[in-house]
From TrEMBL:
SUPFAM superfamilies named in the record: P-loop containing nucleoside triphosphate hydrolases
Keyword Nucleotide-binding carried by entry: yes
InterPro entries reported for this sequence: AAA+_ATPase (IPR003593), ABC_AA/LPS_Transport (IPR051120), ABC_transporter-like_ATP-bd (IPR003439), ABC_transporter-like_CS (IPR017871), BCA_ABC_TP_C (IPR032823), P-loop_NTPase (IPR027417)
One GO MF term: ATP binding
Source species: Reyranella aquatilis
Domain ABC transporter: from-to ranges: 2-244
Protein name per its UniProtKB record: ABC transporter ATP-binding protein
CDD domains per record: ABC_Mj1267_LivG_branched
Entry keywords, A to Z: ATP-binding, Nucleotide-binding, Transport
Family of this protein: Belongs to the ABC transporter superfamily.
Amino acid sequence: MLKLENLKKSFGGVAATRDVTLDFANGSLSAIIGPNGAGKTTLFNLITGRFPPDSGRILLAGENIAGLSQRRIVRLGIGRAFQVASLFPTLTVAEALAAAAQAHQHRETVLRSPFPIAATTRQGEEIMELLGLTRVAGILSRNLSHGDQKLLDIGLALALEPKVLLLDEPTAGMGPEERWRMIETVQRLWRARGMTLIFIEHDMDIVFKVAQTVRVLSYGAVLAEGTPDEVRTNSKVIEAYLGKSAHGAAA
Ligand SMILES: Nc1ncnc2c1ncn2[C@@H]1O[C@H](COP(=O)(O)OP(=O)(O)OP(=O)(O)O)[C@@H](O)[C@H]1O
């Protein structure tokens, strides 16, 4: 579904992405891990077109999307949960989702009516159900808890009907219990939608329990990849990244 071939990106003298080649199978659930500054977010920025790569290819279902605009890449089916819930402070959760669905269906035309049509309202309801947001459907986005704001961010990305969804640290800033609830929700939506889902995560317990495959970045390059068991026991990973806490401690 998504293939990265020899991707490179430098910022000034810093090589943030150094010859990264990775293959994400259709419908897979993958984690990207690595120490701070390893280039995880840069990889997402390249995939979503925030920055063009210096060289290399990004193949989505065989088509090279490297260097295309962010808008075009979204339309081709790559979604990313951004911190955007805060952009709709005066809309309720239900309104924000229906508006996003409507805007997507009208291909970015400006919303002219505050009253979304039935189909997009229904689409918003489905997303709320999937993410467990129905209980806060009528709450203004600005009044949501941190966890619900993050869920709404994911919901807004889902409204654009992505084939590949990128989540950059979906559990950041959450306590242990809330983290597990969030990651269960992520797993549920991945199963329900059958999409290719890639998440960046620092909590190793979550990564090793949830991901089908794990990619480890270090200094902008792929240090290791494989199943959670393969990565957990990889000597390079243990040495460079996990240290002695290879069996579960957070990064
Ligand atoms: N827009 C930018 N301009 C300049 N340098 C950048 C930019 N984006 C990333 N970098 C640099 O590229 C390197 C990789 O950063 P990146 O944010 O991708 O790492 P990361 O693995 O996501 O880190 P973290 O876990 O801390 O979020 C860092 O040295 C960072 O300072």
